[in-house]
Amino acid sequence: MHQVLESEHQAAASSQPAIAVEQLDHFFGSGALRKQVLFDINLAIAAGEIVILTGPSGSGKTTLLSLMGGLRSPQAGSLRILGTELVGAAKNIAVEARRFCGYIFQAHNLHSSLTAQENVMMGLEVHGTYSRAARRDRAVEILAEVGLDDRTQYYPENLSGGQKQRVAIARALVSHPKIVLADEPTAALDKQSGRDVVNLMQKLAKEQGCTILMVTHDNRILDVADRIIYMEDGLLKPTSELST
Ligand code: ADP
Ligand code: MG
Q: How many of the other CB atoms lie within 10 Å of CB of 83?
């Protein structure tokens, strides 16, 4: 009896989308300056899916990602990350959800006073469960995976743009997040570095079985996506309308 319930529970958990958004609106400002930037967003992303989000500048892509990543509080509608509702959630719930997500920014956001290895170790700090030695070992390991085993002690100023972005990816993935949110991760990179960075994200994501939502304008990397979605003026447009 107990076992039946358990397996039903597991089945339900595996079929649930990694990210589920329903009727999500978002506003910036207040009073006369209040401005709606997201309108009735509906979106479900399955576990393990790689989705690319495109659309013009100012259309609301970063806002949507920051809500999903728990960097901003959602106001209205429903936003569930791995089944946890973030709209109206207590602060500790949002913090918990943030732990499931790795966030990669357009500008790598590394700490300039920390080495590559120390920056990656920061990616494990929020978890609080690893000793310093364990964090160091995992950082060194994943830096080797992104091809930076000979750069672990370098400071960001002594790394190229592509290398810095690889450190940022290592930092986002070192904790094996269930979801990776990447906001224009190749924008500052040349063609080859951009391709390398995306291949790497794809490889690590497949290995770790995580879900990726990536904002990009880079036509050269669209092929990594299982699905491409398009946003304009705060609205998600059906892909069938794309050609019109
Ligand atoms: P995108 O990432 O697609 O370029 P954003 O999500 O950054 O778009 O911005 C969507 C809209 O929200 C824009 O009109 C932008 O000016 C506005 N916006 C973004 N962040 C803020 C903020 N912190 N305060 C007020 N308005 C903002
Ligand atoms: Mg943006």
A: 12
Could you identify the atom of ligand 1 that is nearest to the CA of residue 231? 3
pLDDT of residue 241: 52
pLDDT in tens, 197-209: 888 888 877 888 8
What residues flank ion ligand 2 with Cβ within 5 A? 62
Q: Best of 26, 28, 229 to mutate for ligand 1, by most ligand atoms within 8 A of CB?
A: 28
Cα(122)–Cα(153) distance, integer angstroms? 14
- CA dihedral of 149, 155, 160, 166, whole degrees rounded to 10: 50
- Is the pLDDT assigned to residue 14 strictly greater than 70? no
pLDDT digits (tens, 9 = 90+) for 87-144: 998 888 888 888 888 888 777 789 999 999 999 999 888 767 888 999 999 999 999 9
